[in-house]
């Protein structure tokens, strides 16, 4: 089921907040692996995830990334996983031409329309603005334009914003744009912070009242999951359990089990046991996977 209004959000249950059911970055990346176009492989992966206790995915694929709402609806129905949809524009060099051509206000109209009226002539509405992103070393002007359009759309609709940081960097700079635009920072998720393992940085981000997402779980080549777990435990010990969110950000066919990858259910089979062995309680895990996403989306 697509969850796109308040009455449906109560069905969220355990939720992964940064995934992609359809995504196609293959034109820019020149790598067909980054086109998630095998619906059956995705359905199998998500059925297993559902069997392991995850009910809902926030799909942060947006305009220009290969988002396909009709396919998402089909995958959701066949797998039994609920989906929450997003609007937005990703980051340079994945931004469609109209981000260059249109004004900030025109861009914000597109986002608001997808939130209030529906996506691609369907009845299904976006409930999140995401993933909107920044490049590694500095925020490009075109990315700043998207952040400002997103802020305007957030201020009009209240929709939460989920960001992409490149290798976890520039989260504070992202927050500064939102602050300048009077965004409610309690509705902002700074993404991919697990790729920048720095407790002091996390605390500075959290000082702003935002969420931070450990949302590249399973990408052990970037960052061992043991390290992710240790930082999550430290943040729980410092009282930030209510500001943490989890996901895997699976974007490649080779991540799916059918293609020999670890699959979405890795978070349940492998990562949660690592959290437990690091001293994270079942109650903490429930807060992070169940309570926090509902507060973000519906609260
Ligand atoms: Zn992503």
UniProtKB/TrEMBL annotation:
| UniProt organism field | Thermoanaerobacterium thermosaccharolyticum (strain ATCC 7956 / DSM 571 / NCIMB 9385 / NCA 3814 / NCTC 13789 / WDCM 00135 / 2032) (Clostridium thermosaccharolyticum)
Which parts of the sequence bind a divalent metal cation 2?
Answer: 131, 164, 192
Alphabetical list of SUPFAM superfamilies matching this protein: Metallo-dependent hydrolases (SSF51556)
What does the UniProt keyword field contain?
Answer: Hydrolase, Metal-binding
The text of the family note is: Belongs to the metallo-dependent hydrolases superfamily. Phosphotriesterase family.
| Pfam families per record | PTE
**Does the record's keyword annotation contain Hydrolase?**
yes
The entry's protein name is: Aryldialkylphosphatase
The record's section on CDD domains has: PTE (cd00530)
Q: Which PANTHER family match?
A: PHOSPHOTRIESTERASE-RELATED, PHOSPHOTRIESTERASE-RELATED PROTEIN
């Amino acid at each position: 089921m697509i969850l796109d209004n308040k009455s449906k959000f109560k069905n969220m249950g355990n939720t992964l907040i940064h995934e992609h059911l359809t995504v196609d970055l293959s034109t820019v990346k020149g790598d067909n692996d980054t086109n998630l176009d095998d619906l059956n492989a995705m359905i199998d992966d998500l059925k297993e995830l559902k069997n392991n206790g995850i009910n809902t995915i926030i799909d942060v694929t947006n305009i220009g990334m290969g988002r396909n709402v009709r396919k998402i609806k089909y995958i959701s129905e066949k797998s039994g996983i609920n989906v929450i949809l997003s609007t937005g524009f990703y980051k340079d060099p994945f931004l469609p031409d109209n981000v260059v051509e249109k004004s900030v206000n025109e861009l914000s109209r597109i986002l608001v329309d997808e939130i209030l009226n529906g996506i691609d002539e369907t009845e299904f509405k976006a409930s999140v603005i995401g993933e909107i992103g920044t490049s590694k070393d500095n925020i490009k002007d075109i990315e700043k334009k998207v952040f400002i359009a997103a802020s305007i759309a957030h201020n009009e609709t209240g929709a939460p914003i989920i960001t992409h940081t490149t290798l976890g960097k520039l989260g504070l700079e992202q927050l500064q744009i939102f602050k300048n635009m009077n965004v409610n920072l309690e509705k902002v998720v700074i993404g991919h912070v697990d790729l920048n393992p720095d407790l002091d940085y996390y605390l500075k981000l959290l000082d702003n009242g935002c969420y931070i997402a450990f949302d590249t779980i399973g990408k052990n080549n970037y960052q061992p999951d043991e390290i992710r777990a240790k930082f999550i435990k430290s943040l729980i010990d410092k009282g930030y359990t209510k500001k943490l969110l989890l996901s895997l950000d699976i974007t490649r066919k080779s991540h799916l089990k059918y293609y020999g990858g670890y699959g979405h259910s890795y978070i349940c089979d492998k990562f949660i046991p690592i959290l437990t062995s690091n001293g994270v309680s079942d109650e903490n895990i429930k807060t992070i996977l169940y309570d926090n996403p509902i507060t973000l989306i519906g609260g």
